[in-house]
Design a protein that fits this description.
amino-acid biosynthesis, single chain, Aspartate Aminotransferase, domain 2, binds pyridoxal-5'-phosphate, 7-stranded mixed β-sheet, alanine-glyoxylate transaminase activity, 3-stranded antiparallel β-sheet, transferase
């Protein structure tokens, strides 16, 4: 039987996962055919590609010339933990979390590293008051909370004349949001997020003050080889020129370079930010027009433009978690929205990735399906 309540159009690309995220439009595997596969990453051709990945990142993100950019193992997690294990302990630390990834860094600091840490947490949907922190301590925080859809509105709370270091997990922000480099001493992200690259490699961006910390402080703890950024008290500069600590995937490097080329073709950082803004704007318009759904982020100034988290508010819903799961399942079943269920630790709802590789036309084609799935599930619940 034909269901005439179903929308006529479907998104061309139904991939709205918050990581790994949609590949850039027009991406094909064939475009990676010239990757230097089966060659050493230490051969001239490999080194050239790795250095290009670093310098293209610098150019597109507008990272200052005196900041180091390194490609490190183990995706964003590797980059964050490498910084925490290598730099923290010299002074007390402010640990900041408003969703599960930030909470993971709190666990690292408190339970694993056993640091002198003050923990600042906010519930899902809210943000910690960043003005209340002591920036003469080190501060570890997440720019965009991927699992709550709450982000830093800007870096104004971070003083220019701080004595501590700011360590910022920016994995679901970099390339889609403005990042104030002068306020960030350590910044990390993974290729798998806003540019739709592959996971497993992390980017570690260090300010001169972060380098100074590495060269002046040696923590009293064992560091595995893949965390070691210094040798004999000096920074291993090669890491920041593409001489990676261990073997990277040259296929993933080529894929990242392709994504960076695409980024340039849409107008660089400005264009990338505009695309995410337009996507999140389309979802915001939908939410404003429907009284059964709301943004999880309470303060509009903190609403993410990448990982947009939504909650159902209809009084007829009896079991919120089951309802949200069922809506996500319907969307997936129709092949119109994949991987849009809320993160496992987050409040029940949906999470729609609106990052720069997603086409606004796909968001717009998907939203009527959300309306359909919601109504179908309300009907199903009535029995
Ligand atoms: C804010 C944040 N931090 C860390 C991670 C972990 O990233 P990865 O799996 O690339 O290490 C994620 C992944 O979604 C994230 O959203």
């Amino acid at each position: 039987m034909l269901d005439d309540t179903k929308p006529a159009a479907r998104p061309a690309n139904p991939r709205f996962s918050s990581g790994p995220c949609a590949k850039p439009p027009a991406w094909t595997l064939d475009k990676l055919r010239d990757a230097p596969l089966g060659r050493s990453h230490r051969a001239a051709v490999g080194k050239e590609r790795l250095l290009k990945a670093i310098e293209d990142t610098r150019e597109i993100l507008g990272i200052p010339a005196d900041y180091r950019i390194g490609i490190v193992p183990a995706s964003d997690t590797g980059a964050v933990e490498m910084a925490m294990w290598s730099m923290l302990g010299q002074r007390p630390v402010e640990m900041v979390a408003w969703e599960s990834f930030g909470a993971g860094w709190v666990t690292d600091a408190v339970k694993q590293l056993k640091l002198d840490a003050r923990v600042h947490e906010a519930p899902y949907g809210q943000i910690v008051d960043m003005n209340a922190l002591d920036y003469d301590r080190d501060v570890v925080f997440t720019w965009n909370g991927t699992t709550s859809g709450v982000r830093m509105p800007d870096g104004q709370a971070i003083p220019a004349d701080r004595d501590g270091l700011t360590i910022c997990d920016a994995t679901s922000a970099a390339f889609a949001m403005d990042l104030p480099w002068d306020k960030l001493d350590v910044t990390t992200f993974s290729w798998q997020k806003v540019l739709g690259g592959e996971a497993a490699h992390g980017m570690l961006i260090l300010s001169p003050r972060a380098v100074e910390r590495l060269e002046s402080y040696t923590p009293d703890r064992p560091l595995p080889k893949i965390f070691r950024l210094t040798k004999g008290g000096k920074l291993i500069e090669g890491i920041f020129k593409g001489e990676t600590i261990n073997t990277p995937s040259m296929l993933c490097v080529e894929d990242y370079l392709l994504a960076l080329d695409w980024a340039r073709s849409v107008g660089g950082l400005k264009g990338l930010i505009a695309r995410a803004d337009a996507n999140a704007g389309a979802v915001a318009d939908f939410v404003a027009a429907h009284d059964w759904i709301e943004n999880l982020a309470e303060d509009p100034a903190t609403r993410s433009t990448t990982s947009v988290c939504l909650k159902f508010t209809d009084a007829r819903i009896t079991d919120g978690a089951a309802f949200a799961k069922a809506v996500a399942k319907r969307l997936e079943g129709e092949g119109v929205a994949l991987d849009v269920g809320a993160y496992r630790d987050a409040p029940a709802g949906l999470r729609i990735w609106c990052g720069s590789t997603v086409e606004t036309s796909d968001i717009q084609a998907m939203l009527p399906w959300l309306d359909w799935a919601f109504n179908a599930e309300i009907d199903a619940q009535r029995g």
